[in-house]
Amino acid sequence: MAKVNRFLASYRDMITTSGVPDSQIQPPKAVIRRFLCVFKQIDDSRVQAMVDYPLVEIILIAFLAVLGNASTWGEIETFGHTKQRWLKKFLKLKNGIPSHDTFRRVFSLMDTEQLQATTVAFLMENLAAIKKSLGIKEEGYRQICIDGKEQRGTGRKYNYDEKIRNLQTLHIYDASNEICLFSKAIDEKTNEIPVAQKLLEYMDLSGCVVTFDALHTQQETIKIITERKGEYVGGLKGNQGKLLDLAEKVFSSEALISIKKSSDYYETSEKAHGKVEIRRYYMKKAKRGLDGVMGWSRLRNFICYEKYTCDVIDGKETTEIRYYITSLNDIEAAAQAIRGHWGIENNLHWHLDYSMMEDMNTTMDKTAFNNLSLMNKMVLSLCKLAKPILGNMSIRVIRKKFGWGYEETLSTLLSCFSPETIQDCLENH
Description:
Elements: H1 7-18, H2 28-39, H3 55-67, H4 73-82, H5 84-87, H6 100-109, H7 112-134, E1 142-151, E2 156-157, E3 163-164, E4 167-174, E5 179-186, H8 192-200, E6 208-212, H9 219-227, E7 231-236, H10 241-250, H11 253-260, E8 265-272, E9 275-285, E10 301-311, E11 317-326, H12 331-340, H13 343-354, H14 366-386, H15 395-404, H16 406-415, H17 419-428
Parallel strand pairs: 1-6, 6-7
Antiparallel strand pairs: 1-4, 2-3, 4-5, 7-11, 8-9, 9-10, 10-11
Helix pairs in contact: 3-4, 3-14, 4-6, 6-14, 7-14, 7-17, 8-9, 15-16
């Protein structure tokens, strides 16, 4: 049994086995109505007497455009004109389709925190209902990852003296459900620390293991996590000098040999892309009397992570060693959390860059960019749920499929996010 919960893996297995028959797919109007109800919750800060395009129409068109493979404001406008006749089945479009400048301007005026709270609540409520329909129990730790991302297309360099930095965003990511819970714009990398601490203060972390890199291995951050009833696994580097030195001393060659024979050792191996990878995890108790341990809330163990790689073709071997601190006493759970932390890179950041093409978006306005990024993340969550139904296609191919045949495939995608449809599917299978 997995020590860290991975809901989507269970979901994919069950849906792949059962499938969703055509008779259970909802008509487009019923599906669109659900999203209209969600987007109507967003407040419109514009002067209403001067509004030509209702906010809910702008948000819905942008959402459907992103679903149909649009990545920029111009592409969103083009989508609207291309699908205008079809969109009129659901929207009044009294003044037609807004221009790309209007989409960008309105997105720059929306409250990012409200849009985020609304979309995340919708995703989480529906996931909870889906879990109930499928009879999937919450077992193991729910993994929460903290990491920042740079938006590479948003900066400018006008001359040697003037430079506008790329936008920076801090993400708090639910790796168990593959949903981004918080996206917060920050000024620079070091500002991640106080922003992460503020966000964590409002979270219920009971039953969660929070993972982060060395930047966030801070005494105050860990104190907040433990006060919110969470567990943690944090990386060590030079910025935790004493702690890193202590970890290196604790895991001497003799100690590693001894640990390997005990229950505090865990190993995994796999072969992929022409390479054999062996991951070894060693755990050693952090004694409270050791210099450097005091001040770290609920620090129970050090972990040494050794990754051995052998290229099958040329025989080249490499070994990478990293150190961590953790409040966990279970080496297998800690190992799964360390490996699972890369989910924020592989399942969120990589998809935002490659599948959603965010690096191609040159929007400099932080609010507009982050609000559009929330649309990207919502679409990404939907596409992940649709993968087993659509034949396990890549996210990019799923979006292109909708761009090519929107009317035929929209209901299939959005119906898979309906607990009622999934329940009927399983009962009739």
